[in-house]
Recover the amino acids of this structure.
């Protein structure tokens, strides 16, 4: 009797959350990487499938292996394929260990791979491009951890100056008059692995249009597991749904113990109907592709 072929590698999860594509792979304890191509940004790098390589920036949430295992491979493959050096953003506690890791690879490979590394403390930020910024925020996991938010900064002319000719506005600015109001729009928030708590009650999370949230446990009997491991349970997600304005609420990091058909039924049972269309499982490819086909058909009909 012939042996069975090896199992197929799981397809990348994919959700279209206009105007962004959210794609990646996330299974608790195995690997998590979440990529937003339009922003050239990925969150965590527990695996590095080929479609993720173009991400110029990778933001690490914490140091567990399933979230960082492909750091060196990400840097190496970008160099091998003549891309610019990969840029890793990490909690300050990980900066020295990551540099040590890359130094170890110099000894192993007998060559030095170029890379960029930025330690970003909670509430600090870096510019991604244009008016878009990446801001870190504190989370609560078993090791030092943080989430991230993509913030767009905009300015708007103050009402009292509306209608003035351009020449007069330029003159007012020269005189030091502040003619605009600055405001910030949270576009995407990523929690990384974390327990629930007041650290998530902040505008970057509650007002983001797309929220990518860890939800490792769904079953009622697993609430204790979630608390011990400082992960989120579906009960925590139900609270977040009430507190957050997100149009797209994407759940990642589901335990391998939970089959997708069980996960679908559990969400349908416990999430109130008014919220159900907001909530998606990144790794539920069947449901997500059916939704994408509907989005595609609607777009074609509107042309």
């Amino acid at each position: 009797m012939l042996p069975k072929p090896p199992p197929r590698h799981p397809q990348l999860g994919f959700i279209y959350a206009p105007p962004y594509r959210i794609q990646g792979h996330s299974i608790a304890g195995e690997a998590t990487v979440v990529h937003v191509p339009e922003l050239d940004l990925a969150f965590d790098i527990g695996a590095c499938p080929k479609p993720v390589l173009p991400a110029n920036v990778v933001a690490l949430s914490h140091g567990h292996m399933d979230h960082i295992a492909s750091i060196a491979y990400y840097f190496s493959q970008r160099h091998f394929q003549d891309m610019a050096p990969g840029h890793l953003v990490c909690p300050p506690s990980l900066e020295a260990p990551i540099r040590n890791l890359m130094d170890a690879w110099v000894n192993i490979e007998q060559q030095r791979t170029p890379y960029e590394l930025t330690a970003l403390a909670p509430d600090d930020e870096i510019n991604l491009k244009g008016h878009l910024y990446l801001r870190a925020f504190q989370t609560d996991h078993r090791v030092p951890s943080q989430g991230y938010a993509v913030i767009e900064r905009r300015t708007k002319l103050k009402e009292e100056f509306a209608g003035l000719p351009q020449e007069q506005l330029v003159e007012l600015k020269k005189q030091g008059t502040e003619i605009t109001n600055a405001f910030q729009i949270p576009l995407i928030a990523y929690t990384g692995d974390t327990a629930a708590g007041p650290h998530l009650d902040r505008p970057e999370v509650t007002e983001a249009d797309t929220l990518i949230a860890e939800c490792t446990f769904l079953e009622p009997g697993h609430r204790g597991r979630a608390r011990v491991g400082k992960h989120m349970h579906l009960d925590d997600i139900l609270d977040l749904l009430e507190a957050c304005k997100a149009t797209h609420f994407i759940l990642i990091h589901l335990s391998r113990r939970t089959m997708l058909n069980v996960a679908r039924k559990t969400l349908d049972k416990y999430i109130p109907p008014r919220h159900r269309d907001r909530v998606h499982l990144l790794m539920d490819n069947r449901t997500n592709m059916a939704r994408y086909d509907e989005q595609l058909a609607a777009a074609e009909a509107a042309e």
In short: The radius of gyration is 21 Å. The chain has a mean pLDDT of 94.
